[in-house]
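Annotated sample (chain length 487).
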Amino acid sequence: MAHSEALLVLENFIAGKFVPCSSYIDSYNPSTGDVYCRVPDSGKEEVEAAVKAAKAAFPIWSSKSPLERSQILNKLADLIEHDLEAFAQAESKDQGKTIAFARTVDIPRAVYNFRFFASSILHHTTECSEMASVGCVHYTSRAPVGVAGLISPWNLPLYLLTWKIAPAIACGNTVVAKPSEMTSVTAWMMCKLLEKAGVPHGVVNVVFGTGAKAGEALVCHPDVPLISFTGSTLTAQRITEKSAPHCKRLSLELGGKNPAIVFDDADLSQCIPTTLRSSFANQGEICLCTSRIFVQRGIYSEFLKRFVAEAKKWKVGNPSDPTVDVGALISKEHLEKVRSYVKKAQAEGARVLCGEGVDSLALPTGNQKGYFMLPTVIAEVKDESCCMQEEIFGPVTCVVAFDTEDEVIGRANGVKYGLAATVWSSNVGRVHRVARRLQSGLVWTNCWLIRDLNLPFGGMKASGIGREGAKDSYEFFTEVKTITIKH
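Output written by the structure step:
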């Protein structure tokens, strides 16, 4: 462990104050393998205090007008944006992602999340209908639910935490948030800005710790009526079981095994660089990343040759180097898990064309113990292989050939997940036709990761329950009431 600098020690944020914890867990810098941070190992006691604070703050916060809440969200966005570089540096160090990705994606999107929901909360309308024959008018009213439990993952820490906090508090709820224990620093930094932004004490509470202790205590708490979770399908199953006795409202954004379908009329000059990005951006640690690439047989050889050549150009190394394309994976355990999939593919007879076990990885001296892996492309892998069925969540993608449209749709749909897909073709009729038939909550055609936050985000099958976005988040974080007036 490095001793040249003091360890950063985080504290829970409850009722507007930082509160020390009785026990802590180590958090590692993925690019060096060194412990650099101590994170509270919170449990029932800390969650109880946070829920109590959130409940106490709810009456005042929920009574504020949407405009008042909007102004506070915009102020918080301004404060984070003012410190964008500090947040980006912290996110890169804590998660292992490149500084370039943190600067251009993670932190700007966190800022935009607050601004987006600060705006959208001002523009919702309710429903009204008239029954003149019986002299009645019906209308709907929406109100915040109460204390929202928010559990966010380690891959896009502040980006996805704010994607939950912003709509929750914009709607008038108070929150208890639990970020991943592996990537807690930017959430802690955000807490320092809440009072200056005008967020009343107790509206946003952040409890750090593991899912097994802090997360489970939050899910099981009887005074937390709704849970928004982003993470693994396995964890979501436990959340569902634990919350069932309380009939909690759940929003679950889970894993994916996302296909890219490349037809023989695709523009490869656009397709190849975008598919490289969709496969390897953020070390492949995005639920929307492409991990199965189906290429029509007529262009399969050309695509594969060009794709592998370009993948080899992606630079892996110190995340703080602005020229680096691929940073470190989140942990030693996760790196070994991702590597194990490559070994399984080789054992099954697949060919690893570049990356893990094929090419050498040269790292700077200070990063020799970090959790790095080259972008890896696997070919000749069977559809039933675990590499084609299970979420790997790393810089690994499989490229296989197909012949017909019907065939590839069946194969693309032949997994338990249904989060996202991409389709590459210049035939407008085909892209519409294929998009309709794919079992995916999101389908991009001739692009990737272009998002309109007004529209629903979420997956089918084992990729989740519910949707997120302007209207969907508003409906999730509010209770609707139908009122009938007889006149």
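Annotation: Residues 119 and 218 are 29 Å apart (CA to CA).
Annotation: The first strand starts at residue 8 and ends at 9.
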